[in-house]
Amino acid sequence: MARKIIITCAITGGIHTPSMSPHLPVTPDEITRSSVEAAEAGAAVIHLHARDPETGRPDQSPARFMEFLPRIKQQTGAILNITTGGGLGMTLEERLAPALHAAPELASMNMGSFNFNISGAVRALKGEPRDWERPYLEGTRDMILSNTFTQIERGMRELGDLGTKFEFECYDVGHLYNLAHFVDLGLVKPPFFVQCIFGITGAIGPDPENLMHMKTTADRLIGKDYLLSVLGAGRHQFPLVTMGAILGGNVRVGLEDNLYLGRGELAPSNAAQVAKIRRIVEELGLEIATADEARQMLGTKGAGAVNF
């Protein structure tokens, strides 16, 4: 197969809060509709978090995910990727619970612990924020996003036993070395879907040179057994993911990572961001992968083998 670009769309996440944008999906209906629209626009992978529909706060209970997972599966053929990062401050048990329940084709896996400071996002709060929003964001000045070697190994073993593959989320260069460590132990098998993340305060910065360094490091450590994907936070989203595509990588967009479509313009939907990156990719003379092509590229078990 000629190389094609996998577009991942991260629908809602656990970082942005409802008062920042009226377009951020919160309820099961909104998450379902936004996921289906993103898939129709060209996303082969849909990355999913859940939220309390009343407050908009991140909610990692399996029951909450089951309010939309079956509905999305019924309406689209996209690969559904469940977070194991969850929301800030959650325990490992809370973070793993929905993926262990649903046994998805793909689950995210943070490849290390690090300072995760999004306190600056309070500047994006609008109107009258809900009472949890400001303390949730400001509390990250004193928070470590934890994924120790023991925690990573537990997630790899328990989800691996279900046939789930991983989106390895690498927020810094050391995370690539952590991944290589687990590859050497034989705990995960190729192909490896490596999501390099740029622009979170406390992790690697959103500089083009850093993307080149992450790619050359992954090339050296993992060789030809991986698929690069690129995520840029906030205003760095489209420049970095475009550079990633030019370098032969895949791309991730979505309201989890960036609430805007352009300077000062809130994205009206996840589908709008997917459509924009699709246009850019196709203008570069590249093709996007269908969901089934992405399954072949990533070696997933197929939609018929999940528990929803």
From TrEMBL:
Keyword line: Metal-binding, Transferase, Zinc
Presence of keyword Transferase: yes
MF (Gene Ontology): 3-keto-5-aminohexanoate cleavage activity; metal ion binding
Cofactor(s) the record lists: Zn(2+)
Record bears the keyword Acetylation: no
PANTHER family in the cross-refs: 3-KETO-5-AMINOHEXANOATE CLEAVAGE ENZYME (PTHR37418:SF2), 3-KETO-5-AMINOHEXANOATE CLEAVAGE ENZYME-RELATED (PTHR37418)
Protein's UniProt name: Uncharacterized protein (DUF849 family)
Origin organism lineage: Bacteria, Pseudomonadati, Pseudomonadota, Alphaproteobacteria, Rhodobacterales
